[in-house]
Write a structure and sequence with these properties.
66 residues, 3-stranded antiparallel beta sheet, 1 helix, binds zinc ion
Length: 66
């Protein structure tokens, strides 16, 4: 089983935030990985449908709005 919540920032080694988001235009869910210390360190987007649905199934819960 892979743990998606403990990927370290390549710059400061802080564990990256894994955020679930949804495209405004496409409506497709995707995952954003961002450094919690500074978003400029690392920001990644994963749109692979299979991966996203797997994470969604695991991390079902309230997603912050705004
Ligand atoms: Zn960082």
């Amino acid at each position: 089983m892979t743990n998606v919540t403990t990927l370290p920032c390549p710059l400061c080694r802080a564990p990256l935030d894994v955020r679930l988001a949804r495209g405004r235009k496409s409506g497709k869910a995707f995952i954003m990985l961002v450094c919690p210390a500074d978003g400029r360190h690392f920001r990644g987007f994963i749109t692979d449908r299979q991966y996203v649905s797997g994470v969604l199934a695991k991390a079902e819960g309230p997603v912050g709005k705004g």
